[in-house]
Structure formats: structure tokens, C-alpha cells
Specification:
By secondary structure, this protein is α+β, with helices and mostly antiparallel strands. Helix content is about 45%, strand content about 20%. It is built from 23 helices and 26 strands. It has a six-stranded parallel beta sheet, sandwiched between helices. Strands 17, 18, 19, 20, 23 and 26 form a six-stranded antiparallel beta sheet that branches. A four-stranded antiparallel beta sheet has the order 5-4-6-8. About 0% of the residues have low confidence. Bound molecules: ligand ME8. The site of ligand ME8 has 20 residues, from strand 1, helix 1, helix 7 and strand 12. Ligand ME8 binds next to strand 1, helix 1, helix 7 and strand 12.
């Protein structure tokens, strides 16, 4: 039977704006998937979005849409980015899909029936942003050990999965399967974690607190804890448990994740699988963390490394290459334009680009662009041919280890050899004599063949550039059609093929341009292009002056666009003590329907005024810049009519 290869990425929180961190994991999985396809394996590559939980519910309420509408709109950002990045995923799972929900509920019912899940009253600490429970000793200086934010003490009846009983065999499994958790440092981290007693896992949330989740099949007053739901995505894509077992795609070959979610994967997921009666994945690989110019990726830095912007500026394949070449998979890395430009110039332009351009140019010059039939052999040929044999076997071994940067170093070692081969044989000299020409055809044939071979090995990393390289060499078949087998023997490139010297695939970024790019990135990093055109600060007022203004929270009950106006919307706002009619200039930024149910801040003691003949009894607070208007709001609920100071 054909070998099966199943690789996954985390399913990303649908609320997140995809950034290079998400792209990193997804590109790594894609490169692996593509390589295994070239080997002729049947590959399943899964990515998707994690769509339940408190954060989604809160964000939807804030936007005044239902959670379902919210996730339907937002998940597209990931799908679109993956398309731009040439990601070849087999499927894109969303945890709000029916088939997934059914599998989660079947598994829950089965575990409950078998006594693996029980009800209990929990008293302890809860971190709302992380949606996780902690014991007193888990806390770090009284705060959430994961995000460092404040935790709340709660007492709640919930359902628990008997995770604690799995501790001993799990430690044993990790020790006896050295490639189960990788890299080694992460394996040790998890073994360290397992030295402390393992608690049972709370897998429910009362509906009174959170309704956006999969209802527990045995108690409809609760929804499923978002991680218990999300992890099941890796199997639910293949159906219910019996189908998963016979799908040939379980156990997964690799779960690729970032180091932030190592515990949930190696502990929660492993114990869940054991209880479900499924094998553990063959490998969980937790890669390192990207920072930007030495800083944590944040909203303010986002404009520097927005993936779409990077693609527009440098091209898809350059980013794919850079992310996997720059940092050993498993270690932390730092993104900077300087490093990116360095790689483009040294690796892509000077090495690969140069090999391609000079080979094609010489074939054009000496053979009218037609790949010549090899002539006389020479002493330089064999080392080049021998090199590719060791490189291909090393690459194969390194793919098992997911050592992407080492794989690229191997391939670049081969490109170096091909460039050295050209330098040593000096075709420009051979072209000068009839005797030399007998050898010239061999040298240029071999150089072109080296590029063909590189186009196969590099295709998983840079799919569209490799297609273009092959197009320039006049090869009509794709790498996918030819497969890895096509590089087993030297000499598959057909002599007589017409080549094409098209665009330069990897142009150098000259110093002047590089300087400009880096200056712009620096400006972006300090937020110049997101800062408002700042008005000078208004004249000082005393606190007494300020307190004369009465700001109140209000909930929008009704909203209606004023017909003859582009900007105005008529609102009915409930400020607790009374209801107000307010005319607000926000129609260009918000649809009327989107506003209903939103909490806003109203200047409640402003003298009524008429706008387009309609009385406005107050003013809604909003921030603006030349391009947008954003309503002021709160990050937590407040009763209507609360005073805002
Ligand atoms: O954790 N550097 O989703 P998430 C490197 N929904 N990788 C990064 C990164 C960075 N700075 N930032 C994010 C979740 N990542 C859950 C997963 S799985 C059943 C549920 C990548 O949107 C990395 O792969 O927070 C990390 O593990 C993942 O995005 C977290 O994505």
C-alpha cells in the first residue's frame, strides 16, 4: 500500500489577524506535505480555524453580530492568506462545521458513558482571556501563569475529564518514544511539567457564562471547553472513531505547533486520545517563536510584517524561503528586513539566480538557446554528479527531522558546487576553440541539468519559482508530474530543448533600494503611518470644568440611517434613567443594523441641537482619523447609565 502521510497545523483562533507566526507553521507544514507528495506518498494536510469560545463570543457582541456571522466573515482571512502563500492544504477545518461538532459530541458521550468524565464542583482560579482554570500553586505572583493577567476566584459545578490517571503511562511513552515530542528541549520541558501531579481537566463551561460552544450531549446547560473541542479537529476531519481508524491517516505523522501550545498537545491531547482508544500521533513538533526586530509581535508592529504587505513587496517564495532558512526549526527567530534582504541578495540573487542566469545566457549565446547534446566528459563532471547523490539522501533524512534550514543548506551546497563547476570549467574560454567546444556542450548541459535537479528539490519550498525555472529551461512537465524519482539519475534533461531567458527570477536588491526599504520599515515600526495627524492639544481645563461634562454608558436600541445624509444615523439610546434620540455622524463607518445592542459613551448633558431637522439629545463618543471613525467602547460590560470619567 502507498505510504500515507498526515500533517497538521494548529487551527488558528479565528479572531486573530494572521501574521508571519501563523504563516511560519503553515508554510512549514506545506513544505513537508509537498515533499512527501513528490515521494509518491498519499498526503493529507490539514489546517483550519478554531471558532468557539469566550473571545469569539465577546468580539461578536462588540461588533453587534452573531458569533456565527462573525466567524463566517473572519475565517476567510486565513483562507485567503493561505491561497496567496501557495499553501496546498487538503482541507480547511472550521470547528463550527456540523461534522466536527457531531464527532466531538459522540466522543464526549462515549467518555461520559464509560465513566471517564464526571461532574464536580470546582473552586479555584480562572483566567478569562485564556479560558483556563488554575490551582493556587499554578499561579505566578497571584496572576495567570500563561498570560500574566489577573485571575478571578470562582466556584462552579462543571464536568471533568479524568486526565490525572494518565500521568504514568504518558511519562513512559515520552521516554520510550524519543521522537514523540521534538525538539529535545521541548521533550524535556514536558517531562518537567509531568513531574508535578497532573490534575483532571475541566472540559465544560456553564452556558450561563458562555453559550458559544458545542453543547455537552449529556447536559445541555453546558458547552464544551474550547480546547477539548479544538484538539478533536485533527481526527474529526476523518469521521467518527471507526472511520478514523480505517482512514489510513491516523496516527498523524506530525502535529506542527508553536511552543506556546505544547502542553495542550502533548498532555491534554495524548490523554484524550488514550481515553478515546486511538493511537498517539507519531510526532508533535513545537517550533520556536518569531519576534520582529527583537520585539514581541504586537498590533503596533504588525504593519511592518503584515504578510500580505511582505508578499507584495518581496514575493511569496522569497518569504517562504526566508522563514524556513533563517532560523533552525525549533529555535526562536527574529524577523528583520535587513536579514531578509541579506538572504535575498546572497542566497537567491548571487547563488541560485546567478547560476540560472549565466547558464541560460551562455546557452543562448553559444547554442541559440537550445540545450546542447553533451560532448566530451571531463574530470570536473563526476564530483558534481556524486554531490547530488549525497544531497538527496541527506535531504530525505532531514525531512524526517523537519530540519528545514539544514535541508536548504544541503541544497545550497549543491548549488555552490554547480557554480564552482562553471567557474572551474570556464565555458567562456572553452567557447574560444574548436577543441574547447567539444567540452563546452557537456559543461552547459550539466549546468542546466543541475538546475533541473535543484528545481525538484526546491519545489516544496518555492513552488512557483521552480515552475518558472523549469519554464525557462524549456521543461514542459511540472515537478509534481515528475516526482522525486526524476532526480535519481543524472541526464533526464532533454538535449535539443529550446530554453527561454525570461525575467530575472531573483533580482538583487541594490544598496539604495535596500536602504529605502529599511527606512520605511523603521518608520512603520514606530507607527508613523498609523499615527493620527495630530491636532495640537486643546487649552487646559480644570477638573471642575471637566466634571461639568456628564458622560454615560448607553445601549443602542434602534438605529436608522438618515435618508438624505451620507454621514448621519439616528439612534435611540438607553442610558438607564431614560432613552435618548441621538444623531451621530457615523454612517460612513457603521451599518445601522450593526449598531443595535452596542454599548457606547454618550455626552448626556450636551444642549440638544438639530441636525438635518432632527433633534439630537446628546453626542456619541468616537475616535477618528482621516480614513476611519471608531466608536469608543469598553473591554468589559458595564450597566447602562454608568458614569464615565
Ligand atoms: O493557539 N511565532 O491558536 P493561535 C511563531 N487555537 N509562531 C507563532 C507566533 C509567533 N510569534 N504566533 C503564532 C491557538 N504562531 C489555538 C490552537 S490547535 C488544536 C488550537 C503560530 O491562533 C504557532 O503555530 O493562538 C502557534 O502555536 C499558533 O500560531 C497559535 O495560534
Amino acid at each position: 500500500m502507498t505510504e500515507r502521510f498526515y500533517i497538521t497545523t494548529p487551527i488558528y483562533y479565528v479572531n486573530d489577524v494572521p501574521h508571519i507566526g501563523h504563516a511560519y507553521t503553515t508554510i512549514a507544514a506545506d513544505v513537508s506535505a509537498r515533499y512527501h507528495r513528490l515521494k509518491g506518498e498519499e498526503v493529507y494536510f490539514l489546517t483550519g480555524t478554531d471558532e468557539h469560545g469566550q473571545k469569539v463570543q465577546e468580539a461578536a457582541v462588540k461588533r453587534g453580530v452573531t458569533p456565527q456571522q462573525h466567524v463566517d466573515e473572519l475565517h476567510v482571512r486565513f483562507k485567503e492568506l493561505w491561497q496567496r502563500f501557495d499553501i496546498s492544504n487538503s482541507d480547511f477545518i472550521r470547528t463550527t462545521e456540523d461534522h466536527h461538532k457531531k464527532v466531538v459530541r459522540t466522543i464526549l458521550q462515549d467518555l461520559y458513558d464509560r465513566g471517564e468524565i464526571y461532574q464536580d464542583t470546582y473552586e479555584g482560579w480562572y483566567c478569562t482571556p485564556c479560558e483556563r482554570f488554575f490551582t493556587e500553586k499554578d499561579l505566578k505572583e497571584g496572576n495567570c501563569p500563561d498570560c500574566g493577567r489577573k485571575v478571578e476566584q470562582i466556584k462552579e459545578t462543571n464536568y471533568f475529564f479524568k486526565m490525572s490517571q494518565h500521568q504514568d503511562w504518558l511519562i513512559d511513552h515520552i521516554n520510550t518514544n524519543p521522537t514523540f515530542v521534538r525538539p529535545e528541549s521541548r521533550k524535556n520541558e514536558i517531562l518537567g511539567f509531568l513531574k508535578k501531579p497532573l490534575n483532571d481537566l475541566c472540559i465544560s463551561r456553564p452556558k450561563a457564562r458562555l453559550s458559544w460552544g458545542i453543547p455537552l450531549p449529556f447536559d445541555d446547560q453546558y458547552v464544551t471547553y474550547v480546547w477539548f473541542d479544538a484538539l478533536i479537529n485533527y481526527i474529526s476531519i476523518h469521521g467518527q472513531v471507526p472511520q478514523i481508524k480505517s482512514s489510513g491517516y491516523w496516527p498523524a505523522s506530525h502535529h506542527l505547533i508553536g511552543k506556546d501550545i505544547l502542553t495542550t498537545h502533548s498532555v491534554y491531547w495524548s490523554t484524550m486520545l488514550k481515553a478515546i482508544g486511538l493511537e498517539l500521533p507519531k510526532n508533535i513538533f513545537a517550533h520556536g517563536w518569531w519576534t520582529v526586530n527583537g520585539q514581541k509581535m504586537s498590533k503596533s508592529l504588525f504593519n511592518v510584517v503584515e504578510p500580505n504587505k511582505l508578499i507584495d513587496q518581496f514575493g511569496v517564495d522569497v518569504i517562504r524561503y526566508f522563514l524556513l532558512r533563517e532560523v533552525p526549526f525549533g529555535l526562536d527567530g527574529d524577523f528583520s528586513h535587513k536579514a531578509l534582504i541579506g538572504r535575498i541578495n546572497s542566497d537567491l540573487a548571487n547563488n541560485l539566480g546567478n547560476l540560472l542566469n549565466r547558464t541560460l545566457n551562455m546557452i543562448k549565446k553559444y547554442y541559440d538557446g537550445v540545450i546542447p547534446e553533451p560532448g566530451e566528459n571531463g574530470p570536473e563532471d563526476e564530483p558534481l554528479k556524486a554531490k547530488i547523490k549525497t544531497v538527496t539522501s541527506e535531504v530525505d533524512r532531514l525531512f524526517d527531522e523537519l530540519a528545514f534550514n539544514k535541508i536548504l543548506m544541503q541544497i545550497w551546497g549543491f548549488l555552490d558546487s554547480a557554480n564552482t563547476y562553471i567557474n572551474d570549467t570556464a565555458p567562456w574560454n572553452l567557447a574560444k576553440s574548436d577543441e574547447g567546444k567539444k567540452r563546452l556542450s557537456t559543461v552547459l548541459y550539466n549546468a542546466a541539468e543541475a538546475i533541473r535537479i535543484a528545481s525538484v528539490l526546491l519545489q516544496p519550498f518555492m513552488p512557483s519559482s521552480c515552475d518558472k525555472m523549469r519554464g525557462q529551461l524549456g521543461i514542459s512537465t511540472s515537478v509534481e508530474q515528475d516526482g522525486l524519482a526524476s532526480i535519481q539519475n543524472w541526464g533526464a534533461l532533454k538535449a535539443g530543448t529550446q530554453t527561454e531567458t525570461g525575467d530575472q527570477l531573483f533580482p538583487r536588491i541594490e544598496e539604495k533600494e535596500a536602504k529605502k526599504i529599511m527606512e520605511e520599515a523603521e518608520k512603520d515600526a514606530i507607527g508613523e503611518d498609523t499615527a493620527v495627524n495630530v491636532d495640537p492639544i486643546a487649552e487646559q481645563v480644570t477638573i471642575e470644568d471637566f466634571m461639568k461634562l456628564d458622560f454615560r454608558t448607553g445601549v443602542i436600541l434602534e438605529a436608522e440611517k438618515i435618508k438624505k445624509s451620507k454621514k448621519l444615523i439616528k439612534l435611540k439610546v438607553d442610558i438607564g434613567i431614560e432613552q435618548r434620540q441621538v444623531v451621530a455622524g457615523i454612517a460612513e463607518a457603521y451599518e445601522a443594523e450593526q449598531l443595535i445592542g452596542r454599548t457606547i459613551v454618550l455626552v448626556a448633558n450636551l444642549k440638544p441641537a438639530k441636525l438635518m431637522g432632527i433633534e439630537s439629545q446628546g453626542m456619541v463618543l468616537a475616535g477618528s482619523d482621516p480614513d476611519k471613525i471608531v466608536l469608543a467602547g469598553f473591554d468589559q460590560e458595564l450597566p447602562k447609565g454608568s458614569r464615565v470619567k
